């Protein structure tokens, strides 16, 4: 039996076409190209509504706070101007304070209680301040850094007497003192007119009394009596 030629050719082609693997399916998975995700568009930066010269202006840093003066009160247990051991020990501690630097100025204000006349108390208060000054100079402090002022009994810390008028010894003892203030140098003030208020003391050690009070000659110091 003879098979028609077209049917014979079709039967030969069918096995080839059916047995050929799909090229795309036969490719390994890792060879398949994966499209990257679409890139995100960068958001535009916000623009300032201020003018450039204003936006670029930066406020200067705040100045440091002013330095607080270093203070010490040197007491005098007994009347007179002699420094006792407790007073010198307190001054020595002040000298080792890290704030006690060479650029600072030292102001010594002498005080008394109310026993004695005003003029005598001014002398004693000055002598007390000078006693502290001399001790500082002996410790190596330059004399031109030190100023002395005598205030007498004008600025008490405590009452010198009780309300009934009786004596108050503890209060009077607290008022016998020298106040030391160490602070940065201040700009020089113009000289006070005659009859004005308190004047700066001389740096040569001769302190001026506060309130424009005049000082008596040095010869009177040795004749004082009753001042505290």
UniProtKB/TrEMBL annotation:
Compositional bias per record (Basic and acidic residues), positions renumbered to this chain: 169-179
Location in or out of the cell: Cell outer membrane
Location of region: Disordered: 20-69, 152-228
Pfam family, one: OmpA
Keyword flag Repeat: no
Main localisation: membrane
UniProt xrefs under Gene3D superfamilies: OmpA-like domain
Extent of Low complexity compositional bias: 192-202
InterPro entries: Bact_OuterMem_StrucFunc (IPR050330), OMP_bac (IPR006664), OmpA-like (IPR006665), OmpA-like_sf (IPR036737)
Superkingdom to which the source organism belongs: Bacteria
Keywords, in A-Z order: Cell outer membrane, Membrane
Domain OmpA-like stretches: 63-186
Protein name: OmpA family protein
Native organism: Sphingosinicella rhizophila
